[in-house]
Amino acid sequence: MKLKNGYLPKHKHKHRQQGFTLIEVMLVIVLIGVMVSAVQFTFSGNKAEQLLEQNSARFAGVFDVAAEYGLLNNIQLGLFIDKNTYQFLGYDGVSWSPIANNPMFEVFTLPEGIEITLQLDDLPIEEPLLFDSSLLINEDEDNFTEADKKKTIPQVYMLSGGDITPFSLTFSLAEFAIDGDENISFKVSGIYTTPLTIEGPLVNANSR
């Protein structure tokens, strides 16, 4: 190789751009939120408000990612809420079951002192339902066994086309967690599609 002016010839290096998918970006955002919400706070003053805000934001973020996941993979998903826990399920045409290899969609238990309230009927009267939830349930109910009847059925549905069951989920402090402070809450709502909206802090009528 001939040298010119004592320097090696310059070569142009092509750097391959490695981008991230929307799901990966959203997943990182949600995981950051989960890490933050894992920090333990005592229930007093702004710390209680912070904890409510973080958990409502965590839920909204995971819900939006789940809706996008269902849209991209053309599958029906559902949200199941039980006491102070929630999880996302997938529908295979016969039954609902946990979504494999997706830890963020697994059962999530809220920190002690936080409770959630699901509201499905607080909807605008003029708005028609976009779909019938019974369509996602096996029609042959006569053949259901007792085990089938006890299977987990979501309260909120997320269709592969992007539509969701209109709902609101309120995050508030349990009675024992309120110690002279205002009884505040954060309300997460979804009207037929994502992204969800978050309202708060809201001062409840029964505030002390």
Description:
Strand 2 and strand 3 (96-98) form a beta hairpin. 24% of the residues lie in helices and 24% in strands. With 208 residues, the protein is an alpha+beta fold. Strands 1, 2, 3, 4 and 6 form a five-stranded antiparallel beta sheet that branches. A four-stranded antiparallel beta sheet has the order 5-7-8-9, covered by helices on one side. It contains three helices and nine strands; from the N terminus they run H-H-E-E-E-E-E-H-E-E-E-E. It has one domain (22-203): minor pseudopilin epsh domain (minor pseudopilin epsh fold, 3-Layer(bab) Sandwich).
How are the SSEs ordered, and which strands pair?
Blueprint: H1 22-37, H2 45-73, E1 76-82, E2 85-91, E3 96-98, E4 108-109, E5 114-119, H3 146-149, E6 156-158, E7 167-173, E8 184-190, E9 197-203
Antiparallel strand pairs: 1-2, 1-6, 2-3, 2-4, 5-7, 7-8, 8-9
Helix pairs in contact: 1-2
Quick recap:
With 208 residues, the protein is an alpha+beta fold. The protein is 24% helix and 24% strand.
What's the main sheet like? 5 strands, antiparallel
Give the name of the CATH superfamily: minor pseudopilin epsh domain
**Cα gyration radius (Å):** 23 Å
For the record, what CATH class applies? Alpha Beta
- How many extended strands? 9
The second-level CATH architecture is 3-Layer(bab) Sandwich
Low-confidence stretches: 2-17, 36-44, 124-146
Strand proportion, as a percent range, falls in: 15-25%
- Separation of the first and last Cα atoms: 84 Å
Helix content: 10-25%
Mean pLDDT, all residues: 75
Structural class: alpha+beta
* Quaternary structure classification: single chain
CATH topology: minor pseudopilin epsh fold
Tally of individual helices: 3
Listing every helix as H and every strand as E from the N terminus to the C terminus, the arrangement reads: HHEEEEEHEEEE
Domain count: the total is: 1
Shape estimate: globular
